[in-house]
């Protein structure tokens, strides 16, 4: 069964991970998000119980 032979596929997987770690990751990490997280706290909302018409 050739698909169980790790010789050609291991090198392809290793090369793709090295490309991702060395080239793609710094480019992705340098991007800034458009919406920065805010420190504003949301006020607690007042909830009222539901009045069931049949009780």
Question: How does this structure look, described?
Answer:
The protein has 55 residues and is mostly helical. Helices cover 44% and strands 0% of the residues. The N and C termini lie far apart (70 Å). It has one helix at 6-29. Pfam families: ATP-synt_8. This is ATP synthase complex subunit 8. One of its GO terms (molecular function) is proton transmembrane transporter activity. Residues 1-30 form the signal peptide.
Shape: elongated
Coarse structural class: mainly alpha
Helical fraction:
40-55%
Number of strands: 0
Q: What is the makeup of the main sheet?
A: none
Fraction of residues in β-strands: under 5%
Total helix count? 1
Region (Disordered): 33-55
GO cellular component, one term: proton-transporting ATP synthase complex
Main location: mitochondrion
Subcellular location: Mitochondrion membrane
Show the helix and strand layout.
Layout: H1 6-29
